[in-house]
Known about the structure:
The chain is mostly helical. Helices cover 74% and strands 0% of the residues. It has helices at 9-19, 23-33, 45-64, 70-78, 80-113, 119-136, 138-163, 182-192, 198-201, 212-242, 248-253, 265-295, 302-318, 322-362. The protein is globular and about 70 Å long.
Amino acid sequence: MGSSKQISGGEVIQIILLLQQxxxxxxxxxMLIHTNGTVGLVSCIPGLAAGILILLVCTFWRKHCxxxxxxxxxxxxxxxxxxxxxxxxxVCLYLLFALICLGCFIEVLHTQLLPETPRALLLLPxxxxxxxxxxxxxxxxxxxxxxxxxxxxxxIALVFTGAIGSFMPEQLLPxxxxxxxxxPMLYGIFSYSSFLVLFMVYPSIRQSENCFNKxxxxxxxxxxxxxxxxxxxxxxxxxQSMGGLVxxxxxxxxxxxxxxxxERTEALVTVFWIPTVLVTGSLFLWAASESLHQLLDxxxxxxxxxxxxxxxxxxxxxxxxxxWLFRLEQFAAPIVAVLLPVLLTLIFAGTxxxxxxxxxxxx
Length: 363
């Protein structure tokens, strides 16, 4: 499934920039602001810390397990039964992230742009494209990242230049409400847990030992864009209106007045978002498929891959309302936030023990 091919460090950095711009982060601002006010933005800091921790553990693991793929190393580090269970859990997490990423995009198309079009007709081409790209392998996905990053930059530039004139600082008040910070922190950690896909990507990076600092900067840069975008939306719409807005870039784009020939700028924002969705959604599907093949000790099997894509699409069809996507995140966020430190601790401790065993064998 493409694991033997390699990608550059620059492409990995671009992937990190795009990971946080899919459905996970488009729904996150409302979750952070709704109950806590402007200061709720700081509750995404633990999420960024969790993302950097994933990068640290991933770098440490790869440095000492270069000869193994990630699913294979789980069995070596944790023992076969626990390794298989952990590998299966990672497959489920990758599919969950793919489901939310692609599902959110389909909801944008259906609720904002094409309400009369049956949802299934929108879902079909999205999953076919993502399934085809993920089946081609990581190298083909990485080749799309420059195009996706360019589209992402254009999207952000369009939104910022169009809405900055309507920004009013007084809309940021009150800075704090009497809310609960725990739930928004869980959402932030859940969003950055998508960095777990890098355990599958790392073995394919050329000269990965020089990438860590740049990857941290990419994660911080992505977080800064998210922070500024949410702050801009707060200054434009105010805290009360934010509670009813889900797709902030689309709402900000509607305020842009270009000319009579471009009446619906939110449609242009959606077009710019398509490459990002394809890259991130395909990456999660590829990671799930590649992990599943390695767990089952199977060679490239397109039947297995497309059955997995089909099952994910069927679940997405069932989640045919935006509120169900919210409930899915509400259900998954605390579970993933608890599992994440456990998984990272097991991988780190297992790598240390594996390193010691190798040192003993040399003696």
